[in-house]
Amino acid sequence: MQPTYTYRMLPTYTRDILLLSSNKICVKYDFTKLYSLSQFVIVDMTAGEFSNMDEKKKRGRRNPKETANFLSWLCFGWTLPIFSKGVKRGLQISDLYDPLKANRSVALGDRLEMEWKKELTKMEKHPNSKRQPSLVWALFRMFWVPFMLQGVLFVVLLLGLKIFEPICQRWIISYFDSGEKLMPQNEALLYVLTLTLLTLGIIFIDHHNTLRTQELGMCIRIACCSMIYRKLLRLHLTTVKNAAAGKVANLISNDVARFDDVLNYLHLVWIMPLQTILIGYVIWQSVGIATLAGVAAMIIQTLPVQSYLTHISAKLRSKIADRTDERVQIMSELISGIQVVKMYAWEKPFELIVSRVRKLEIKLIAHSSYLRAALVGMIELTGRGTNYVTMITFVLMGHLLTAEIVFPVATLLNTLRVTCAAELPTAVTSAGEAAVSLRRITEFLLLDEVKGMECVERPVPKGLVKNNANNVTNVILKNEADVEMKSLLRNERKSMVKIEQTEDSGIEIVKNRTGDELRHEIGVELVNVAANWISDQLPPTLCEVSLKIKSKSLSVVAGPVGSGKSSLLHLLLGELSVGAGRVSFSSGGGSKKTKINSRDIRISYTSQVPWLFSASIRDNILFGQPYDEKRYQEVTRVCALVKDFEQLPQGDLSFVGERGASLSGGQKARVNLARAVYKDADLYLLDDPLSAVDAHVGRHLFEKCLKGFLNGKTRLLVTHQLQFLQHVDNIIFIDRGTVVLQGTYDEIADAGLHVLDFLKTEKTDENEEAQDRHEDNITEKTTHTAATDIFEPIEPSESIEESEKLSDEKVATGIISTGIYKSYFLAGGNIYRLQSNDSIANEEAKSNWFNEDGLLRIDVAIQVCTALFIASIFFFMLRGFLFMRTCMNASCNIHNSMFSNLLCAPMRFFNTNPAGRILNRFSKDVGAMDEFLPKAMLETLQIFFAIIGIFCIVIFFIPLAIVPVIIISGVLYLVTITTLKTAQSIKRLEGIAKSPVFSHVGSTLDGLTTVRSSGAKIIDMLRQEFDLRQDLHTGAWYMTIATSTAFGFALDMLSCFFTSFVCFSLILLDDGNFLSGSAGLVITQCLLMTSTLQFGVKKFAMVVSQMTSVERILHYTDLPKEGPFITDKPPPSTWPSKGDLVFNRVSMRYADDKPPVLKDVSMNIKPGWKVGIVGRTGAGKSSLISALFRLTGDGLEGDIFLDGIDTKTIGLQELRPRISIIPQEPILFSASLRYNLDPFNEYSDSELWDSLREVELGDSVSSLDFQVDEGGANFSVGQRQLICLARAILRNNRLLVLDEATANIDRSTDALIQSTVRRRFSDCTVLTIAHRLNTVMDNDRVLVMDGGCIVEFGPPNLLLENPNGLFTQMLKQTSKRTSENPS
Asked: Keywords, A to Z (predicted)?
């Protein structure tokens, strides 16, 4: 074996053995066994280390807090390594530590799930009780012990140290009393030392307590997110529309974010009354009955006024959440269907609808922000007002104010102010918002679930009963609350077998049987089954369904669009509950059958719409199953994937991108089928897997895979490929939810039933095909169709290498530039001066009043203080409202700019960026910019100016203090710069780590049925994957709060040093002339700085982190753009009037460094021609349409003329609306049917109804205002395609494109579309990309493409004259009948 030496992983993917070397140690891996979804390798050669990421063998980066010594823990020294890395080189994902063991997602999710089940059990025991399960009580039982321990620390802090601090302050001020010194200097120094130790105690307890409470809040968030995802895995399909990706994204971003900070203040609700009583008692000792006036003033300002405001704020939060849900949901649908939006030129309607929703949302957010501004202003004014009322009352009672009375009382009142006016309202507001979030999460957790299935007997209501000659014991599906799906894993269960014999039926009832003897012999019987997706809807989705499926048989379900074929599969999967009737599962054949429980059956399912997730192709096929090389190779062969693997850059290890963006439609369908086939199951449910592939590929899949590889298994196939019906064991025809007939093909033909009329319309003659199969075999030999040799080299529409290169989100480095702040405030449109001089003037007036000589008379001093107090009210409120208005303008303008830029971005951007990453900008980042940033920034600026005022006061009275002020300012600057680099880097990583969580949720929602049908093992695997992704985010978030706390701790230590310096300087430098009022003012301001910084640092860190969200959003305001959209010389309104289309040497590539996907294409399509475009997978058919619609931007070369006008010379909004298209994947949006047909409101109701009648949907809906579910979930795929045809009929353009529009629908709907196109577009130019060659045989021209080039172009009858032509070869592979009789 030839070795390969590499520093990158990709070259090793094609090797059998992987050798990893690190620190002179070499480890050998069997690569083929190593690589699977649940076990993969990450190699970091630059770091010289490697690790196996399997959970059991994982060697992650252990959090240094777990190994820190006491001193390092006490002073947050364990955070220094992360600061050091952040300063030196910036941080990467690999630098983040693993979460602490107590913070891991899986443990927290398990614990909360257990507590939540207790709540559900209570509800089940008391069904008549109005009490709903309480998520609050579940969380309380989970976290009450650590929560109460934090409460004890709050008591020590707020009822002990904080109150004793002003007492020490009064002792120190008494040293400066005029007259004879009664206190020795040493005693005063001892008091200063005591004050310093108290301040240090406050700092240590406060910051450690803050970190711990934030950690608890984080744990609540993690547990709730884990529960939300687990619930998502169990959601009933009928409720999925209530749990759309946008709403779930909002739940796991904005809603759960309320838990991060709520615990910081929640204890104050019960501590505040105790603190008020204790502080009131201490103040009483100084000012007597005047205490009542001050405390009453504070209570009046806080409880009635602020309580009312917080109540209004909570109501607004609930309304805001609903509007945000709506906006994010629209964005989710827009991102998913962006290609259709661009081809329809629907950017403007979406811009209008998003703007309308955003306007309502921002209006509510603005009201909430103004309330926050009022609350912030009242926080500051409450302290001043209370102090003002207390002192004025004390003076008016005839008492003399002294510094020993005023400043300690002011400090105590400030402490009470912080609790009552600042933290208590915040606690109430946060609790209210958290309560709204808890209610929303609880409502989500109470949505209907898909229950486990259990064998029971259910009576059939009268009117739904048919005579049944077979007297057998039946099984129906029953909802059971907590059935363990692990019973699906046979190899994990060793249960005893219990068999009961029924004399009259010959069926054995087997309970908990898991032996191999049951495998591959599953039979199914349905008797008079009725089922409904919507409760009480008439007629039901399935009505009086009776059928039998024999074991080891291949049965086909056929029927028109919307007849209930997919619903039948969902019924057998347990996704659709049985309303009436009986469903039986049995094993064995002949007269003796074994009845088995449905949950003991291993089912494999493939969905109608291919579902792929962001991983390698092999991961998508294995989907958690063990890698069996022999079986894997055989599966890829029978699913016609071998040649595709040879053409992909890394073969089957190539990354497929978001939703399989790197693969063609046919490739996605085959990978989707391969996943189902690879699983060794008892029952295979295959929902139309042949529709999206070429005719010859479909035949290969049917013969080699469905009839060959799966031979001996029970298979139920939904298909519209009716040419295969005579080769199956059983045919089930469904119409309007009822089984019309069932039997073999010969039985149906002999019966002469009307269904044969339907079969005849398909233009296929299966009998003749069967007679001439030997001739087909000869033909296959001459046309190179031996199994997998029929595939030519392909060129994927997007390079896999490109997908891998761009799959990682770009990480900004360094400190956020001033340009980000400048852009933010310029977007706000208002720049104003912050007023803070009134604060300094107010404090200076106090000092002059209380000094011994009294610079002001009492009456004048009262008037001055009153005037300053009134001025403070005015300026604080004005400042808050203006600032919030600026922030709201900024949020609105930046969001609109980002959204408009996103609409203008080329398709390449959407193909190389996961939907979760884009959605993260519009949910989490916009939420942070809207609600968190403005309040935090306002409070930070307020505190910043307060600190400047404190420094000015201290320097004024103690000029020598300028030295420590300069030193502290320098150190503060260095610490801030160091911290900012690290904090912003961590915050960026936190935002990036959140995107995979959104992507994982969105991907799970898309493939929910496939996931659940894969069994408990896969469900557990995806749950573990979610937990791992959440743990990665937890590691980033914990470092965010830890570094923020450490930063605050460092700054508070600086302020403590400054306070100690000032106090010692006052005493040591006192020459007897220093006034007590001045000393009291200086000490009070220094103490205030410490408590202010404790709060200000948190807000400062929040501003820095939230500005990262602004930075991420601003990145999306400078995306590459398509265009131009409009030009100065638009084409005439009647253009194109003919439909004359000319391609002149057109080449196209998706990226400058990628090979072209179209190569020198030239052709002339005359007006009115019907042109069929055919070719094998990856031949360039869809790329041709992309070139016509100019979806690739600058990657297009050559000229395309439409009615003589070069399409490059006109704008996109002038080109795309003039071309009608029916896309391969019909996209509908969650809006009214009217909006889906006519978002511009250009047509009358009668025209809309006419278009629906043209496509035979006039009777399917009752109103044009009929609400369409997300993705059109309440319509079948065929009906969605018909709605797309109705759109084209409305536009009535001269050029129509059908991009494999009939690939996923039955032949009757195909015939309806074809006949409608011929009738309504008879004089129009029509381009049809088709898999079914019979749909283009009557076209004027057929364009055959291969490898991005035109191979053949001409009338179909002339092309067929060339026996060696590619079109002839493809047609021969479809059927001999069609080849000989093309007309």
From this structure: ATP-binding, Membrane, Nucleotide-binding, Transmembrane, Transmembrane helix, Transport
* Secondary structure of residue 1189 in the 3-state scheme: coil
* Cα–Cα distances in angstroms (integers) from residue 423 to residues 261, 370, 525, in the given order: 11, 18, 65
- Name the one residue in this structure whose structure tokens are 């004048």: 860
Residue 986 confidence (pLDDT) above 80: yes
Per the structure block, which two tokens stand in for 1102?
Answer: 């929040």
**Residues 235, 1183: Cα–Cα separation, whole Å:** 38
Both tokens assigned to 725: 């019906």
pLDDT of residue 1305: 65
Distance CA 575, CA 739 (A): 20
For tokens 């300690």, the residue is 408
Cβ atoms of residues 994 and 1033 within 8 Å: yes
Query: What is the residue-wise DSSP string for 828-865?
Result: H----PPP-HHHHHHHHHHHHHHSTT-SS-HHHHHHHH
Residue 1221 pairs in a beta bridge with 1297
- pLDDT at residue number 924: 81
Please name the amino acid found at residue 1.
M
Which residues make Cβ contacts (< 8 Å) with residue 28, sequence separation at least 6?
17, 18, 19
Q: How far is C-alpha 342 from the geometric centre of its chain's CA atoms? A: 23
The mean pLDDT value for 779-807 works out to 34
Q: Look up residue 7 and give its amino acid.
A: Y
Given phi > 0 = left and psi -120 to 50 = alpha, else beta, which region is 468?
beta
Is 0.70 topped by the overall pTM? no
216 band by pLDDT with thresholds 50, 70 and 90 = very high
Greatest Cα pair distance, the chain, in angstroms, is 126
Question: What digits encode the pLDDT tens for the residues 127-148?
Answer: 777 778 888 899 999 998 988 8
Q: Please state, in angstroms and as integers, the Cα–Cα distance from residue 917 to each residue in 606, 810, 910, 912, 921, following that order.
A: 27, 11, 10, 10, 7
pLDDT at 668 over 80: yes
Cα end-to-end distance, the chain, whole Å: 57
Per-residue burial over 497-511, b if 16 or more Cβ lie within 10 Å, else e, is eeeeeeeebebbbbe
For residue 856, report the phi and psi dihedrals to the nearest 5 degrees.
-125, 145
* Helices and strands, counts by H and E, the chain: 47, 28
Cα–Cα dist 1066/964, whole Å? 14
- Strand 522-531 versus strand 542-549 pairing type: antiparallel
Residue (of 53, 51, 38, 42) closest to 9 by Cα position: 42
The predicted structure's pLDDT at residue 1070: 75
Return the pLDDT at 208: 92
Residue that has been written with the tokens 């001020």 in this structure: 173
What is the arithmetic mean of pLDDT over 501-508?
37
Q: What is the pLDDT of residues 22-78, one digit of tens each?
A: 444 444 444 444 433 333 333 332 233 223 333 333 445 788 888 889 999 999 989
pLDDT reading at 603 higher than 50: yes
What is the spatial distance between Cα 671 and Cα 612, in angstroms, rounded to a whole number?
Answer: 8
What string of DSSP letters covers 365-392?
HHHHHHHHHHHHHHHHHHHHHHHHHHHH
| Residue 604 structure tokens | 């494999």
Point out the least confidently predicted range of 701-715, 771-785, 880-894. Answer: 771-785
Q: Which domains does the chain have, with CATH numbers?
A: 1-59 (no CATH), 101-449+808-1115 (1.20.1560.10), 455-805 (3.40.50.300), 1137-1219+1330-1383 (3.40.50.300)
- At 1073, list the tokens: 């002339």
Res 575 pLDDT > 70: yes
Q: What is the distance between the alpha carbons of residues 527 and 571, in angstroms, rounded to a whole number?
A: 13
Cα atoms in the Cβ-side hemisphere of radius 13 Å centred on 269: 14
**pLDDT category of residue 518 using cuts at 50, 70 and 90:** very low
The contacts of residue 504 (CB under 8 Å, 6+ apart) are 471
Query: What φ, ψ does residue 1086 adopt, rounded to 5°?
Result: -65, -45
pLDDT above 50 for 162: yes
Residues 6+ positions from 967 with CB-CB distance below 8 Å: none
Helix (H) or strand (E) holding 269: helix 268-287
